[in-house]
Amino acid sequence: MSKLEVKNGDIMRLDINAFCDNKTIGEFSPKSIEITIGEEKIVTGFDQEIIKSGLLKKYNFHLDLSSINPDYKKVKFEVINKSFNHIKKLREQELKAQLIKNNLEAQKELILLKQKFNALENINETLKDKVRNLTNELNEGKRITVPQEEIDKIKLYALQKFFEDFSNPYSTFKLAVESGAQSNDQSVKTYVGGFTMLLNMLESVFSKHGLVIEKPNIGDDFDPKTQKAIDFVIDNDAEPGKIAKINSDAYLLNGRVIKYALVVLTKKGE
């Protein structure tokens, strides 16, 4: 069995003998004295030595009492604990009470865990039944009804993944066509003319399926709903937060942003 503890507040009756250089120090050697642990009635540090040692019948330790008397550098204490049996019984009762409490709490936890386990088993069985019924319906060729709201939502955003994947090559293609259209070389302008028509056709198809390409304008206010700022440029002549450069347009599918416009914003110099 592990050593029982001594606590602050414990009342102990002690016989104390204090020695220094084999001479008894009367002022620190009371007999059958009753002390309350923690009050340091004998001398500072005495009670802490008792607590540190735990519950014993006898104690032996040294204290430096040179702050009281320069000659008391190393005072030896021999202590007989007359309250050993009483405190031992008290600690054992406390331990028993704690064990009973822990046991009751453990039983409650066990009951709760069992209830949770049973609930999970019921949920599992319910899910199994639903899967089984669904499988039977499929096997029997029965029609499964999906709410119209879900059907409409699926229809609205069925092409989202396609447009997300298509937006990057489309943006690159569009940028190349626009750059060619601004060329001073007439042959280049003529060459990209056909691609401009193709771009218009693509955008018409996009619009038909609910895709809107929203192009920001230089000097506009930043709109976090459809735009993301990727950098800032210092412009003390412009209001902060204005669009200074556009890297890509925004793409919205039936009002939902599937790709944000990437823009560079203005800010004041420090």
Given the structure, what is the number of helices? Answer: 5
Number of strands: 11
The main sheet comes to:
5 strands, antiparallel
* CATH-derived architecture of the largest domain: Roll
- Gyration radius from CA atoms, angstroms: 43 Å
CATH superfamily of the largest domain: Head domain of nucleotide exchange factor GrpE
Which range best describes the helical content: under 10%, 10-25%, 25-40%, 40-55%, 55-70% or over 70%? 40-55%
Query: Could you state the order of secondary-structure elements as H and E?
Result: EEEHEEHHHHEEEEEE
Give me the secondary-structure category: alpha+beta
Q: Which range does the strand content fall in?
A: 15-25%
CATH topology of the largest domain: Nucleotide Exchange Factor Grpe, Chain A, domain 2
Mean pLDDT: 82
Tell me the overall shape.
Answer: elongated
Unreliable spans: none
Work out the count of structural domains.
3
CATH class bucket of the largest domain: Mainly Beta
N-C termini distance: 72 Å
What report would you give on this structure?
The protein is of the alpha+beta class and 270 residues long. It folds into three domains: 10-81, Chitinase A, domain 3 (Roll), CATH 3.10.50; 86-145; 157-267, Nucleotide Exchange Factor Grpe, Chain A, domain 2 (Roll), CATH 2.30.22.10. It is 44% helix and 23% strand. It contains five helices and eleven strands; from the N terminus they run βββαββααααββββββ. The strands form three sheets. Strands 1, 2, 3, 4 and 5 form a five-stranded antiparallel sheet that branches. A three-stranded antiparallel sheet has the order 6-9-10. A three-stranded mixed sheet has the order 7-11-8, with no helix packed on it. Strand 1 and strand 2 form a beta hairpin. Helix 4 runs antiparallel to helix 5 (186-208). The chain starts with 10 loop residues before the first strand and ends with a strand.
